[in-house]
Design a protein that fits this description.
heterodimer, A: alpha+beta, FAD/NAD(P)-binding domain, six-stranded mixed sheet, globular, B: seven-stranded mixed sheet
Chain lengths: 509, 500
Amino acid sequence: MIRPQCLTMSRQNIKSIVIVGGGTAGWMTAAALARVIDTRQTSIELVESSEIGTVGVGEATIPAIHDFNRRLGIDEVEFMRRTNATFKLGIEFVDWHHKGDEYMHPFGSYGQDLNGVAFHHYWLRQRQQLDTTPFAAYSLPHVAAKLGRFDYPDKDSRSVKSTFAYAFHFDASLYAGYLRSYSEKLGVRRTEGRIVDVRQRADDGFIESVLLADGGRIDGQLFIDCSGFRGLLIEDTLHAGYEDWRHWLPCDRALAVPGSRLPDLPPYTRATAHSAGWQWRIPLQHRTGNGHVFSSQYMDEDEAAAILLDNVAGEVLAEPRLLRFTPGKRKTMWSRNCIAIGLSGGFLEPLESTSIYLIQAAIMKLIEFFPAQAFSRPEIDEFNRQMSTKFDEVRDFIILHYKATERDDSPFWNYCRSMPIPEELERRMQLFRARGIASHRSSELFIETNWVSVYLGQHVIPAASDPRVDCLNAATIRQRLGDMTAHIRKAAEAMPTHAGFIDRRCAAR
Amino acid sequence: MPALPIRKIVILGGGLAGWTAAAGMSNSLRGSGVSVIVVDASTSADEPLAEYTLPATLKFFEYLGMREADLVRETSATYRLGTEFRGWPLHAPRRLRPFGAHGANIGFIPFHHFAVRARQAGESIDFNAFSMNAAAARRGRFAHAPPQSRGSLPGLEYGLCMDRPQCTRLLRRYALAAGVAEICSPVDGVYRRNDDGFVESLLLSDGNSIDGELFIDCSGPQALLIGETLEIGFVDWSASLPCNRMLTVTTGVDASLATVLRCTAAADGWMLEIPLQQRTVAGMLFAARNLNEETAIARLVTAGRLDASLRPIVTRFRNGHRVRFWDRNCIALGSAAGSVEPLIFSELHLLQNGISRLMRMFPDTACDARVAEEFNSETRDEFENARDYLMINYSVPASRDSAFWRSACNAPRSASFRRKHELFRSSGRLVSRENELFSTAEWAAAWISADLWPQAYDPLLDRMDAAQLGEHFSRMSAAIDAAATNLPTHDACLSNLLGE
């Protein structure tokens, strides 16, 4: 029915792809591209230098990682064993609204919508009636996480165990290594080398090749810049420009240090607010990732390191490592024949574990808009528009955690509490305060349940809730809500412990 | 003013919009003690005679708890599998745009890239050969259940063609049974609160007044509350979408085999045929500045679509929408909110979405302006989306020598439309970010049905073996064809459903 394609090619396909930089972004890109491209027709070459360290320490992810792994056909158990991974049901936020306060942003929904009205409106109504049941009691992943329990969700939508999803904590360097062997099996070539120069086409500035310290040269038609913060191609060569967001997100340093394994292996990430930033805790099978994200404007490194080490549970296994960054995004993530993926595209602190997600999103968009040699403008513009929006959306969600606070114990918090925030976030917060409506775009990563979780967790409490809750009588509401918490409690208690689950199913070999 | 729960809702307008709002709101507020009253001021006399829906429209009736069989019976409905365009684009005598998917994704590559590649390879490709809906519609066949024993084939996606006055009466009965009150009286005036301009009450011609806390303007294009009283302006799209009159008339033609809405390009506009049980509603859309009503009626008669003795209903509308749909304590729904020329779907669709949105954001007596703004911004997006989808049809090169087609096809296009068009034209890619009425696959099918084929396909498709893929899809189209042949006729389906 259809003639061989070679006779009829209407445009020239890309023949060579060069990925600059290994690390998580580089190898995720290599693996995903090798999965959709025949490397015998289009070469994929990754250049990395072992002299340059990668940022990967421990990485916390969000459930979207499943889409990526599924696309690659990765076996989950095998992947967990190889990366010392643990399961993750959410992120716990400690001391954010005020000292001594805590809440969780779990991967799942709260309660059940009744009569087409979102659940949180019923909870707000009960709260007004002086019912003190915490919102958290209506979230299975929250209750299970705090009990240190884990089990796979159920597919059957009638089961309470269908109300959550899960993600992973894993060792990012091991993940990159895992994806490296995956990619090499599919024909990706790896070249060890440090890039010393970049050649551009004279007429249009397209990148032609990169030159290595050892005198080697790598030619390509499509370049993926995974070189990290520096943006070796996208910035140093193509000068795409960077939008600085420090006025909204003042943190610009992180100190990371590994600690010994937490014996009970909590199935969640913890983010504890300090006086000029916050500290992460990411439990892995063999150790614990710890890090202190802080603002250099409000705290020096020594103090930050002291706070970090004071708050590491268990044994500290190495010297803290310092990372410098500027929160923000590249103004143009796809410029000419170069696409920035990973930190070269932009940086947002890992407060909501979105680093890997943003890499993944860029890779998926690149595949969706995969170019031919002609590089069509409308496609590039659309890619840039969508990626840029994605960064803005995640940024706003992170800013919410800093803005909605009553902390006044440090200049840092005084600044955050009173800083002006992006207009769209301001509008959304007001809308939630007014009537409990969690506005978001349909294609956004964080949807109603995520926003509601963080709003309520950060004590952004609506003045009014949906009046339709009064369609049900008070006794019915009480009873339905009581049933929900009982079911959730029971389901959580019936789950195996997280540590036991890992030992039996996916312990590292 | 303290914010209190709303206890009384007044809906102005007793047409389809008013009764849809009454039915939806009374169902959603059942048990809350909120009273709903419909003031029928006879603003709906010139509503068109038929409604034609998208598949999604049926969900609303389901939400009301109406059985589909009852809905079909009570509204003399026929099932609708898509839209058939005649002479539109000009060179195509018939061109079907079915609901539902074409083919199947190839890995993560949307199906239409396969069709583009085959076409560029010189194949004459019939895009609709890969659509279950198209195969069934061509044969006048229909079934609710997916075709038996064909495992991977999709089921049919259907909307309805309905008798609009019957549909209005059905919703009215539903609403009255749910406790909605009805008053039939012209409205002589509107009282507003001094301090903030909120609507307080409607003054009826008998001197009584009806007060309320929330007012729903369903008074049609006149927009008595949102337009005349609150003086909210209108975003007028007439410059790029000039149609502003719709004629409809019921004819005795039995179109029970049709299963599609038929739209035929005419010299000064377009004609439509909406199949109902044992009859057809014929219609014509045109721009008053190019054609007067009498001439339009004469055109319909000449086209053989009606008996000269029948007098069509003339519905006036204007493409565009209110600057704000929700202002103070008044929300406009239906054509009071705005109109999108009823080419692919008629009024009911945006109307239902408006009601669902209003219920989701249901206010208290203070009617927080921030909530209203959220409602307005979502509604605006939806109107603009519908407009862009409609513009596809007016982007088809039309060489018709008429003022109407010249102005319609050369008119300026919205920036969002141009962006979508340029992206698809150059690469077959689709913008999927917005809160869309139509899926990306439906957008692709729409561009292609208008012959606006992309110049390039996804380069990643070249990895796939063309011969193998070709074979796979020709097997699929054969299976679709065979499955469609085995479906019952639409006629038999209807009889069966209605127990005749």
